[in-house]
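Folding follows sequence. Below is one example:
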Amino acid sequence: MSEHGPVDDVPSVFDDDEEGSGSGVIRIASVAALGGLLFGYDSAVINGATSSIKDVFGTSEAGLGFAVASALLGAAAGAMSAGRIADRIGRLQVMKIAAVLFFASAVVTGAATNLELLVIGRIIGGLGVGIASVIAPAYIAETSPARIRGRLGSLQQLAIVTGIFLSLLVDWVLAELAGGASNELWLGMAAWRWMFLAMAVPAVVYGVLATTIPESPRFLVAQQRIPEARKVLTALLGERNLEIKIERIRATLEASTKPSWSDLRRPTGGIWPIVWVGLFLSIFQQAVGINVIFYYSNDLWQAVGFGESAAFGISVFTSVINILTTLIAIALVDKLGRKPLLTIGSTAMTFSLGAMALCFVTAGVDAEGDLVLSGVAGPIALVAANVFVIGFGMSWGPIVWVLLGEMFPNRIRAAALSLAAAGQWAMNWVITVSFPALAAFSLGFAYGLYTLFAVLSLLFVSRFVRETKGMDLESMGGEIAPRNPKPTPEAS
C-alpha cells in the first residue's frame, strides 16, 4: 500500500500452490470486508431520511443533493490518505480508525440539529467510507492466494451491497414502527434519526473484530517484525517454504519504488492508454446512475405515486436483488471472464434504463403536479429498475473493482489505481448531487441520460477493454507490458 493508492506493486505474497488454512484466509478476508458493509450502510442509509431531512430543515433540491453527496467528499479525502497512514501504523490500526469514524458519523448525523451538522456527520462517515474502500481490498490482496484472488476480491463488493440492504431494511423497519420516517420513535427522536444512529452497532462490531485478525505479513516484514510475520504466515499457510516466502517479501519490498503520478506518463508524452481505460471504467461504473437507485429510490417511487411504505419495500427488494446478482458475479468472474460479464451487464442496463426513461417520459400528472405511472407503466418501471440492478450487480459493480486491481502493470499500479478511484468518487458525486435537480426538471430526461452512458459503456468495453482472466499480473499493461501475452492458467 502507498500514499498513492490502495495496493502496492505486488498484490499478494502467496503462490498458487500454497497450502494452509483456506478457511483462515476466508475468515480474515471476511472480517476485513466488514469495512465494505459499513461503506454500503453509510452510503445508502440516507435513502430513508431524504424526505424528512427536506421537511425538517427546509432544504432545497440543490441543498438535499449536496447533503446526500457530502459523504463522497469525505470518501475522496479518506481514500487518498488511507494508504500513507496504513504504511505508517499498519492495516489493522487503520481499520479501527475507520470504525471510530463510522461510529462518530452515526452519532453526529442522528443528533444533528441543522443541515450543517448533518453534512459534517456525513463527511465524517465519508472519511470512513474512503478508508474502508482502500484498506479492505489492500488487506485482502496481501493475504489471499492468487488462485482465488478474483473471488476474495469480490467479497468487498458483496459486503458493500449487503450493507446497502441492511441500511434499507433498517430504514423500512424503523419507519414502519413509527408510522412514518418523520414520526417520533424512541426517546423523543424521529425514526429518521434512528436510521443514522443504528450504524453505531455494526461500527462497534467492526472495530472489535478488527482486533481478532492478524496484521498483514507484508507490513510486518516492512517494519522488520519478522517473528510476527513468520507466525502469521505459518497460521495461514503452514510451514512449507516459509523462509522462502519471507525472503520473497523482502525482495519485493526492496525492489519496489515509491509510486509517483509521473509514472502515468509515457516517455514520449501523454498518459499511458491503459490508465485511460481504468479511469473510464470507473467513470462509467457511476455514470449509469446506479447510486441514484440506492440514494434516492424512496423519493423516486413516491414521486410516481407509490406510498411511503411501498417505496421502502421496493427499495429493500431491490437491494436483495443486488446481493444475489453479486453472488452470481463472484461465481463467474474466474470462469466466464471479466469482459463478457461487462458486455452482458452493459446490454442489460441499456435496455432497462431505456425502458425506465420511456415510462417516466410518458407518465401522467395528478392534480398536485406529481407524476403518476398509470396502467402497465408502473409494473414496467419496477421490473426495469430491478433488471438494471441485476445487470449492474453481476458486472460493473464487482468486475470493475477486480479489473482495477489486476489490469495495470506493477510499476504504475498504485498511481493508476489512485487516479481511477478519484475518477470514481468524482463521478459518483456529480451523479448524486445532480439527481434532485434533474428529477425536478424531468425524470425521463435523467434516465435518458443514464441510458446514453450505458450505451457508451457497451461501446467502450467492446473497443478498449482486454480480457484478463487467467493472465498473471506481470502480463498486464497494454503497451507497458509485452503485447498479446499468453494466458497463464492459475492452479485450481
Notes: The first helix runs from residue 22 to 44. Residues 249 and 265 are 28 Å apart (CA to CA). The radius of gyration is 22 Å. The chain has a mean pLDDT of 77.
